Amino acid sequence: EGGSFVNNSDWNGGALAVHASSQQAQWQQSRVQAPKQTGFTIKSVLFQSNNALNAGGAIYLEVPQANLTGNTFETNAASTSGGAVYVPQRSCLDGLFVSDSTFDGNKARNGGGLADDSGAATVLQDNEFRRNKATRLGGGVYAKGTSMTIVGSHANGATSNALSENVAGVSGGG
Questions:
Q1: Distance CA 36, CA 132 (A)
Q2: Under a CB-based contact definition with an 8 Å cutoff, are residues 139 and 114 in contact?
Q3: Span 27-43, mean pLDDT?
Q4: Fewer CB under 10 Å: which end of the chain, C or N?
Q5: Chain centre to alpha carbon of residue 159
């Protein structure tokens, strides 16, 4: 909980690459092995100006379940998918929950802010996606084969996720 990752670079997950393992969670140069039996939570962390040569400018998530809560993702970049966060196929099959987070000025080919290829259930709650850019699909958010639920905490049922000034070169600016 807390902390920051600034100006890091790697192939996948410029700041963090989180992979499932049967071992306890272990930190090793920006790579984390998370226990297979449990979910993984990242809370109240700043990810700024990180770069992935492939996917997940800030975070590459390959775990059964993940919670991202209260994080800030600013000016991260990936060459392919997920300027800030990337979830590959068959990951997070027990769910991805992203809440109270800000995605600002991130860029990638697909999913300038968040790219989810997992094919699993994803919930976005009370987030802000602004000024993210994708050269192809999903300026703010890109989801492929994923069941995505967008919820808010307002009594009138309106969502409180905000998407503004996101740009996509082909389709899906928001």
A1: 32
A2: no
A3: 58
A4: N
A5: 19
